[in-house]
Amino acid sequence: MSNLLATYIIGGSGYVSGELVRLTLGHPELKLMGVVSSTKQSQAIETSFPHLKPILTGLSFIDLDNLLNSLESHSEVIILSAAPHGKSTDIVNKIYSKAKQLAIDISIIDTSADFRFRDPKAYEAIYGIEHAAPALLDEFICSIPEIKTSNKTPLIAHPGCFATSMLLSIAPLLSNEFNIENVSISSVTGSSGSGALPQTSTHHPIRTNNHYAYNPLTHRHQPEVIHILEHITGKTINLDFVPQSGSFVRGIYSTAFIKIEKIINQNNLQEAFINYYKDSPFISIIDQPPKLKNICGTNYAELFVTVSKNTVVVNSAIDNLIKGAAGGAIQWVNKIHNFHPLTGLSQPSIGWY
């Protein structure tokens, strides 16, 4: 009898879902039982992800009813949600309720925004819709695996890709009590961050050989980061955030300008970041600004830190689809189930693409 953990993916044919499929099929402790799509039921998964054909072995999409009916055949289940914002809530709530009814051990890692805020009013204010399962919000923790938290739960709301990049840059300074006065971050993202459905902003003639900011100081990840840090660390920061669109496909490159109360030197700053991430195998503190090609296609992140008087600058590079979503979700699976952190996620970047 197989000891592999039954794993279901919800969210159908989007980019993050595709990466979850790829990573799950390559994970030695997981068994992919089904991928839920509301529009492509019974279609071969390879029609949406032809690049995964060699490892899909004839798998087809299922609908939510198929998943719910199959739960009773498992004693333990992992749910990885890449459903869109506003739609994940109802799906997750139905699965969680059925699992509890059947006394099944269930882990849920949701990469949408639906469980990132403890207050349903905060969610409604940002996304413009009423939360469909407010009673579940207190059950979820929203954080990245690298941020230490005393709470342990199998229900995780993984922060967005921009938020992941920002949290990695800010967290070490909070933990070491540098008394942050203000944080200003500018992040450039690739076109895959806008999702698989075509949009004006990601149309090839618009995006290629172009660079532009959007939603300056009003992007939804700005209050998200403030909320996460306040909930996890008890500290409130002043944060200004300007996202930008780059002409590449994958990756996020962030530059954080962080004003701290006291003046520190470069060695102390470097040591603070190295110590904070000493048990985080996916984070490298390097001695020069990072390059996206070194981390794209991986769950790794590279950070470069420098300081002048009381101004700290952090350059960070992550893959938005993996470290910022699917890989971060698998990393949470490893953490919840006490697998080695690198399990299923140790692949290096291909470098040239």
Could you describe the 3D structure shown?
This protein is α/β, with parallel strands linked by helices and 353 residues long. The chain has two domains: 5-139, NAD(P)-binding Rossmann-like Domain (Rossmann fold); 161-320, Dihydrodipicolinate Reductase, domain 2, CATH 3.30.360.10. Helix content is 29%, strand content 22%. It is built from ten helices and 13 strands. The protein has helices spanning 15-25, 53-56, 64-70, 88-101, 120-127, 161-175, 204-207, 221-233, 266-276, 322-336, and strands at residues 5-10, 30-36, 76-81, 105-110, 141-142, 155-157, 180-189, 212-213, 239-245, 252-260, 283-285, 301-308, 311-318. The strands form two sheets. The chain has a seven-stranded mixed sheet with strand order 8-9-7-10-13-12-11. Strand 12 and strand 13 (311-318) form a beta hairpin. Helix 1 crosses helix 10 and helix 6 (161-175) runs parallel beside helix 8 (221-233). The protein is globular, with a radius of gyration of 20 Å.
